[in-house]
Amino acid sequence: MAETAANRPIFDEMRGTDGKIRPAFAGVDQWLSNMPDGEHGRMQLQADLLYERMGITFGAYGSANGHERSIPFDLIPRVLGKTEWDKLEAGLRQRVRALNAFMHDAYHRRDICRAGKIPEAQIVRNDQFLSVMQDFDLPGSIYAHICGVDLVRVSEGQFYVLEDNCRVPSGVSYMLENREVMMRLVPSLFTQNRIQPVAQYAEELLNTLKATAFPAASSDPCVVLLTPGPYNSAYFEHAFLADEMGVELVRGTDLFVDDHKVYMRTPRGPKQVDVIYRRVDDVFLDPLAFRPDSMLGIPGIIGAYRAGNISLANACGTGIADDKATYCYVPEMIRFYLGEEPILQNVPTYRCSEAQDLLYVKENLKDLVVKEVHGSGGAGMLVGPTSTKAEIETFREKLLANPANFIAQPTLSLSTCPTFVEEGIAPRHVDLRPFVLSGDRIAIMPGGLTRVALRKGSLVVNSSQGGGTKDTWVLADH
User: Would you say residue 3 lies in a domain?
Assistant: First the structure.
């Protein structure tokens, strides 16, 4: 039976199921209880000014109000105790290890297919499969150097993985800036609570990127961050991370390939580049290898990549694991490659490419969330319980026109977190995106980006759909 919001109570992050303040939230509860009338409004105004001065923006494609806007920030943090975070961290490590093992196998022997655990068609017929990566060996066999795993909680100890973002996951800059704003506004909270820091992310990211370099690279690899440019929705993040790491922010025209090596144009002449943290999608990376009309990439860079003279993070072709249909098989990957039982659970998922699943989905659209296999940002999805009959029927036609392009999941009772809204403090649904770095070791920042659906009852937390963010605390004890 599908698990729906209607047949399961909603878990409150602050008060739990018994209505009592959970130990991890004791400090936040005390802070809110002692807050004078009107103080919230004053602090929110200060936070908005800080965001404006710091230039923290999000580019919303198709926005009617201009290209860039601020992401709403809520002052009440989401708090995780050490014990629950330790379990999450172990599950994230396990999951990302299995995903990287899968990607290496998918581009080599495909033992998991030979064992009958995953259909080979799921790999070779995947739109994100790149034949240029076949039998190509990467340092450490790591493909997803930066992975953002979307989690939701439905009860005290039960988290589900919603998605594995293995291509170019965004949002870490907002995690860091949210912490910076909170530390400026209420520094006393950080002296009264043992909150684990996240400021080391840029250093960990740079170390991870350097660890991806091929043996031919210099002993101190030259790293750059490749951006599509200021019209990209995540351009703020690109500039922010390059600045934090102390590396050059470059566009395709800043780089060129000569003799299968990549160079950056500088006022002092060409400088060889060893590692590119690329925030450009695969198909735009090299007009000689992929889309010939791409103005964002570097002609010949895939040849340099195959020659072992430049590392790309994340690796090309990671989209085969960043796919909502492949997602269904991650528990099998964990068992097959690691010989372990999954610590974090998947949401039960129906693959509309399969006749029996499609039949169930067609008959239960009003109770399900239906997503495009390669969709992102909350666009192009149906949330059955909050959709009108007309919207469901329109979506049904879209689904039946190309069933293999969709998966469906039950509508989970996403947990809520107290949030400042116009009428005061009210519960709003949240998710969590921790960031996992894989290089010569795995590093995970304690916490991640908490996204919050600001509309009452809404389950859509995506920034592109009007969602906001919160600071995420992981306590050193509790």
Answer: no
pTM of the prediction? 0.91
pLDDT bracket for residue 63 (50, 70, 90)? very low
- The verdict on 131 and 197 lying in the same domain is yes
Nearest to 476 by CA among 197, 200, 87: 197
| Helix (H) or strand (E) segment spanning residue 208 | helix 201-211
Q: Is 123 found in the same domain as 69?
A: yes
> Average per-residue pLDDT in the chain?
90
What CATH number is given to the structural domain containing 274? 3.40.50.11290
Do 249 and 229 share a structural domain? yes
Question: Distance (Å, rounded) from C-alpha 443 to C-alpha 191?
Answer: 25
The pLDDT value given to residue 67: 55
- Alpha carbon distance 161, 200 (integer Å): 25
- pLDDT (0 to 100) of residue 325: 85
Kindly state whether residues 382 and 439 are assigned to the same domain: no
* Structural domain count of the chain: 3
Q: At residue 118, does pLDDT exceed 80? A: yes
Q: Whole-angstrom distance between the N-terminal and C-terminal Cα of the chain?
A: 35
152: left (phi over 0), alpha (psi -120 to 50) or beta: beta
Phi, psi of 436 (to 5 degrees): -115, 125
